[in-house]
Amino acid sequence: MEFGMFHEFQALPGETAAQSFANSFAQVDAAERWGLDAMWLAELHFAPERSVLASPMILAAAIAERTKRMKIGTAVQVLPLCHPLRLAEEVATVDQLSEGRLIFGVGRSGFAHTYATYGVDYGESRERFAETLQIVKLAFTEERFSWHGKYFTYENVRLAPKPFRQPWPEIRVAAASPDTYVEVAALGHPIFVAARTGNLSELAPLVKTYRAAWKEAGHSGDGEVFLRVPVYVAATEERAREEPRESIMHLLRYIGDRLAASAMASGARAIENRAARGQKMQTIDYEEVLRERMIVGTPASVIDRLEQLREELGLNGILAELNPGSLIPHERVLEALRLVCQEVMPRFK
Description:
Elements: E1 2-7, H1 17-34, E2 38-41, H2 56-66, E3 71-74, E4 77-78, H3 84-97, E5 102-107, H4 112-118, H5 125-141, E6 145-148, E7 153-157, E8 170-174, H6 178-187, E9 191-194, H7 203-216, E10 225-233, H8 237-242, H9 245-261, H10 274-283, H11 286-292, E11 295-297, H12 299-313, E12 317-321, H13 330-344
Parallel strand pairs: 1-2, 1-12, 2-3, 3-5, 4-5, 5-8, 8-9, 9-10, 10-11, 10-12
Antiparallel strand pairs: 6-7
């Protein structure tokens, strides 16, 4: 089972941007030292109260240069906001710098306000995602190619450099709405699933549809599933429950407000149920959060919960959010990371 840390390069209250970068890189260095499998980078824009991680490929390149072993992933690169050829060049460059350690995680993002700020219609996000992914894959695999699509037109393109890994860095796709599970399975890519905007108990039927569609498409194996989930580990159950309380509740209210506000945005679909999910996040109580949207406890209890989820979902790995909400102090994040690496992770290897 693969163990990764989902990182937003959090901006803690009162920190300068320089301090946020320094603390985050210290956590990256510790993860490399303690044997974590992968470091996952979010993509967040125009939220200085929350994060300094607006440029995941730049930070992936920086991490590639300061590490030798750990994989570096994007979770996720927001494809509809990207220029496909520029993105393909950057991804291939990071894959070369890391000697094949990059995992190219992609998605659309649910934050319609980011699209509006960039001047991109969120209603176009699904089409732009599909077209951008097709172009990037062609750029990786073809010596020369031309493209005539709805949003982009290219003639006789040659990408340089090509990726270190062939035919491309591993591609994983975020799945949130039910139809996305089937679409990603048909493409033959592993998926990310998340508990932040829904309950862990709701994921098993969706994962089942993904794996059924995977087999129907004729792909070998079962299709890999990776869970992004808030995780907090401490020496006692009480500390594990109470230390992240303020931070995770702050995050759920923050995202719930934005999710509900986006329900009427161009491109929001009924199947996504944004208004109801946003309202739920704004009113959910902490006991339900602990049961359904987090994994918390001592190393022993976290091991038990992960074993249960692995059995229910057939998990291939996790992306542990060790500072959901950006309010947990740096030293506590480091301690939770150490416990994950040294006491939890070895039980799954």
